[in-house]
Predict the structure.
Amino acid sequence: MNQFFSKKQELFIRRAFDLARLAEGSAVPNPMVGAVIVFKDRIIGEGFFKGFGMPHAEVNAVNNIKTDDRKYLTQSEIYVSLEPCNFFGKTPACTSLILKSKIPKVIISSIDKTPQVSGNGIDLLRQNGVEVLTGILEKKGNELVKYRTNYVERNTPFVILKYAKSKDGFIGRKDENIWITNQFSKTLVHKWRSEINAIMIGTNTARQDNPKLTNRLYFGKNPLRIVLDRKNDLPENLHIFSDGLPTWQITENISRTFSQTHITQIEIPFDDFLLVNLLKKMHQEKIGTLLVEGGAQLLQSFINQNLWHEARIFEGNKLIKKGILAPQLPVSQNEEFEIGNDILRIFHNQ
Ligand SMILES: NC(=O)c1ccc[n+]([C@@H]2O[C@H](COP(=O)([O-])OP(=O)(O)OC[C@H]3O[C@@H](n4cnc5c(N)ncnc54)[C@H](OP(=O)(O)O)[C@@H]3O)[C@@H](O)[C@H]2O)c1
Ligand SMILES: [Zn+2]
């Protein structure tokens, strides 16, 4: 049912979205969620979910209410960016909290696609006399939890392809280190690294570029690095093997072992199902988002096997004239942004 919501109600749910986004990078593969408790058009409590095992947004919002305002809880409404959970996981169910707190009205943006919840939270609240409105700015609410939705519906990480190409369509040259984009684009990529769980690269990129794949230009965490090394012969002094941060080395035969404990060696057949099987393994290890940072061969394999969800492609204003051609994407729908003199195009694979 299409519900009509007022501008004021939209303002409150937008506040919940903003709160949710404070957990960008720390929540995944769990969802980012924000909650705002409103009494007579005044926010009396607000909160967000910070990450695995932490109290949910609704709990933080209730706990955030000042003592003097607690008496209003029974006449307030709670705005939540995601349907409240109805099961006891790491923390008690938020539906129980809402019922116990006697909050009479709940306004929800997105339905939680987690199988145990998926509308059950709403049903439970309604059965207990709570007024529940759903679908407020639902598109934005769904966007906020897209990694989570993918995680529970498709059992694979949300795969984001990222690369930079020159104005004439090359991503680099063999045996030469060429930088294509400007410093702002570089900073943006480091921000993305802080928001995702893992980064993957191909063997040639590791050998030739020796990238660190860490987040050095933005605040927040570093992702796990995943590198293909079929023959198990990439040099041990590469940054990703020697800097002490976690790396998965994917190989066909663990003929060589590493003494460093931060390197996890994964032996797996390099057959047609390599990427599918790796994505399954990542999902088992709770990797909800994967950024594939090249090179051309690895990116093209993800594209050819249709194993990607989003592509973020920079176009620098340099001409390289010859070299390794950029991958070919089959879709045309995209958004375009100017990052200084670079162009960033974001493609969605629906
Ligand atoms: N502009 C950018 O954004 C960007 C980003 C990254 C890299 N680069 C540039 O790209 C160049 C490297 O690209 P590239 O295409 O030559 O190499 P790549 O994709 O990094 O590595 C290719 C190698 O990785 C392994 N591999 C890749 N995909 C595989 C798959 N699906 N299954 C099994 N093995 C797979 C294979 O190794 P084996 O043959 O040993 O099995 C393959 O030969 C460098 O010049 C680098 O500077 C540019
Ligand atoms: Zn909850």
Q: What stands out?
A: The longest strand covers residues 158-165. The chain has a mean pLDDT of 95. Residues 155-348 form a domain with the Dihydrofolate Reductase, subunit A fold (CATH 3.40.430.10). The pocket of NAP (ligand 1) is lined by residues 163-164, 171-172, 174, 180, 201-205, 208-209, 228, 230-231, 270, 274-275, 293-298, 301, 324 (CB under 6 Å).
